[in-house]
């Protein structure tokens, strides 16, 4: 007996003619969502956590290779201690809840950021989740925790500096390509679309190196309200943009 087919909210959405390989999202607006809905302090983050699953399903269904979400920044450590503690609990819960979904949809789960500031328990949970999903091929879901773009670039420079100290390379070999090979996510495509929800117009130290040529999208929609339909509309807009990477329009058109 076959299982009944379930209908998803994104099933009727048209597929954009050009798909980005890598989408990155700054998930902003949880606290404002909570205030607007009269929710208790911190509950906006709980609501925001629930928004991720349908977007992950949509991305894997349409054929996105990598989805990276900004869960907790280097600067977020400055927030009130009780909010940080709640965010850490939610991150742990998210990992536990995502694992069965990663296996169901054949998604690889990865984490980027400075893990040294995280608890040993959370670090172990992250490592275990990465190991359990390492062979999954449908899509990669990257969760940025204790991450900052400036830290990422400095950390990459430190790795190369150590190689220079040890005589494994010269200072002249410290090129753009060499540095790019040491940043987080060096083994996947650079970010094509960088989205920020919540109405702010800044990228807040997120994937600075990897987003050098990303198309930027900003929406006033608070993260808990952000859904596949709006992402689909953004992807159609992405399809209409001409990405020149420093070349002229004439050069791009002649290559098509």
TrEMBL record:
A Pfam family the protein falls into: Prenyltransf
Residues annotated to bind substrate: 29-32, 41, 45, 73-75, 77, 79, 196, 202-204
Active site: residue positions: 28, 76
Cofactor notes: Binds 2 magnesium ions per subunit.
EC number: 2.5.1.31
Protein family per UniProt: Belongs to the UPP synthase family.
Name of the molecule in the record: Ditrans,polycis-undecaprenyl-diphosphate synthase ((2E,6E)-farnesyl-diphosphate specific)
Encoding gene (name): ispU
């Amino acid at each position: 007996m076959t299982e009944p087919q379930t209908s998803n909210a994104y099933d009727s959405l048209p597929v954009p003619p050009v798909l980005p390989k890598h989408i990155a999202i700054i998930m902003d607006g949880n606290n404002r969502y909570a205030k607007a809905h009269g929710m208790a302090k911190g509950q906006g983050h709980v609501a925001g956590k629930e928004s991720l699953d349908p977007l992950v399903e949509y991305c894997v269904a349409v054929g996105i290779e990598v989805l990276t979400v900004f869960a907790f920044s280097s600067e977020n450590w400055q927030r009130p201690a009780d909010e940080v503690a709640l965010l850490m609990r939610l991150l742990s819960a998210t990992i536990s809840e995502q694992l069965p979904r990663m296996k169901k949809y054949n998604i690889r789960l990865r984490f980027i950021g400075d893990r040294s500031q995280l608890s040993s328990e959370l670090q172990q949970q992250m490592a275990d989740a990465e190991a359990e999903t390492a062979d999954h091929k449908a899509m990669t879901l990257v969760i940025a925790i204790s991450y900052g773009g400036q830290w990422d670039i400095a950390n990459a420079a430190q790795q190369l500096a150590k190689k220079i100290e040890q005589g494994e390379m010269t200072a002249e070999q410290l090129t753009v390509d060499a540095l790019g090979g040491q940043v987080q996510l060096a083994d996947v495509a650079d970010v094509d679309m960088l989205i920020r929800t919540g109405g702010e117009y800044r990228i807040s130290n997120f994937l600075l190196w990897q987003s050098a040529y990303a198309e930027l999208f900003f929406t006033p929609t608070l993260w808990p309200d952000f859904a596949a339909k709006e992402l689909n509309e953004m992807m159609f807009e992405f399809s209409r943009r001409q990405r020149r990477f420093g070349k002229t329009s004439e050069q791009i058109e002649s290559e098509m």
